[in-house]
Amino acid sequence: QVQLVESGGGLVQPGGSLRLSCVASGSIFRSYLMGWYRQAPGNQRELVATFNNGGTINYADSVKGRFTISRDSAKNTMYLHMNSLKPEDTAVYYCYAGPWGPIWGQGTQVTVSS
């Protein structure tokens, strides 16, 4: 049973923008804390942005001011708006739901290159 489905990755030039989407089942969207992580080749998976208890948002320092996480409850969808992309943003981006589980999506590749 697929519970998190990401989309929106692709190849973009430095300075460009992408929007990632993560569709979750209704029960997960309502009950879990959700966020985005990424993993570059040879690196560990790292936090990009997450929703926290109380509605606050946590961003990695490397993406602050460039990335924005958002959610649409009517569509059970979470987004990651990525602007001013850099080559170092190249990674597989994963949708996350926790803390129970946790649950991971299948990942979507983002490549920033000229």
Could you explain the architecture of this structure?
The chain has one helix and eleven strands. The radius of gyration is 13 Å and the shape is globular. The strands form two sheets. Strands 2, 4, 5, 6, 9, 10 and 11 form a seven-stranded mixed beta sheet that branches. The protein has a four-stranded antiparallel beta sheet with strand order 1-3-8-7. The protein starts with a strand and ends with a strand. It is mostly beta strands and 114 residues long. The longest helix has 6 residues.
Percent helix range: under 10%
C-alpha Rg (nearest Å): 13 Å
Strand content: over 45%
Please state the average pLDDT score.
94
Identify the notable features of this structure and list them briefly.
50% strand; 114 residues; four-stranded antiparallel sheet; seven-stranded mixed sheet; mainly beta
Summarize the structure.
This protein is mainly beta and 114 residues long. It has one helix at residues 26-31, and strands at residues 4-7, 10-12, 18-24, 33-39, 46-51, 57-59, 67-72, 77-82, 91-98, 103-104, 108-112.
What topology does this entry show?
Blueprint: E1 4-7, E2 10-12, E3 18-24, H1 26-31, E4 33-39, E5 46-51, E6 57-59, E7 67-72, E8 77-82, E9 91-98, E10 103-104, E11 108-112
Parallel strand pairs: 2-11
Antiparallel strand pairs: 1-3, 3-8, 4-5, 4-9, 5-6, 7-8, 9-10, 9-11
